[in-house]
Amino acid sequence: DAGVIQSPRHEVTEMGQEVTLRCKPISGHNSLFWYRQTMMRGLELLIYFNNNVPIDDSGMPEDRFSAKMPNASFSTLKIQPSEPRDSAVYFCASSPRDRYNSPLHFGNGTRLTVT
Amino acid sequence: SQQGEEDPQALSIQEGENATMNCSYKTSINNLQWYRQNSGRGLVHLILIRSNEREKHSGRLRVTLDTSKKSSSLLITASRAADTASYFCATGVQETSGSRLTFGEGTQLTVNP
Known about the structure:
The complex is a heterodimer of chains A (115) and B (113).
Chain A: E1 5-7, E2 10-13, E3 19-24, E4 31-38, E5 42-50, E6 53-56, E7 65-71, E8 74-79, E9 88-95, E10 105-106, E11 110-114
Chain B: E1 5-7, E2 10-14, E3 19-24, E4 31-37, E5 43-50, E6 55-58, E7 61-66, E8 71-76, E9 85-95, E10 98-103, E11 107-112
Parallel strand pairs in B: 2-11
Antiparallel strand pairs in B: 1-3, 3-8, 4-5, 4-9, 6-7, 7-8, 9-10, 9-11
C-alpha cells in the first residue's frame, strides 16, 4: 500500500492567494483527518470526515478555511485568502475506523509558507 | 485543556541506553496511543494500549498505562541513533458528545552515536 499521499510537499505563496492542499487516503479507510502542526500550537485537528461526511470541523480556524471530500479516495483543504499566520505543516491522516480507537496513518505533510 | 502532556520535553542519551518518556492526562480515556515523528515526515503509529490493559510490548518498545495515576510511559530499550525523533502520546476518548483523539506536544529524543 502506498500510504496516505499528500500534494504538494511544499507550497510557497503570497498573502491573499488561494491555496489548495490535496490528500489521497489509504484505500478502504473510512475516516480522514486534516491536522496542522506549528511550533507554537503543536498538532491541531482541523477537520474530521467519516464516510466522506464532515463530522467535526470545530478546529477549522475561520471561514477562510474549507475542506471537501467528494469521494472516498480524495480530499482537499483550501485556504482563501491565505495569510502569513497560516504558515505551517498540514497533515492528512486516515484510519480504518472511528478516530479514537484505531491507529491513524499520516501522510508526509505539506509545508506551507505564506509570505 | 491539553489532554496529553509529555515529559520530558527533550531527552538526549547515548546509543545503547534506555529512553523513557512519560505522558500524563486529565480525564478518563478509552485508549492511549504513541506515535513517532522523524524530522520532515508524518507521524507513525507505534502502539495502542486500551484502558483495561496495563502493559504492551512491540520489539524494543514497552508501553505502560496506569489509569489510576492517569499516566503512561514509553520505554525504548537499547536505543539506536535511528530512534532520534519526536514522540507523541495521544489519548482516545469516546463520549456521548462524540469521540476525540488528542495529541500532546511531544518529547524530542536525541540518541547520540
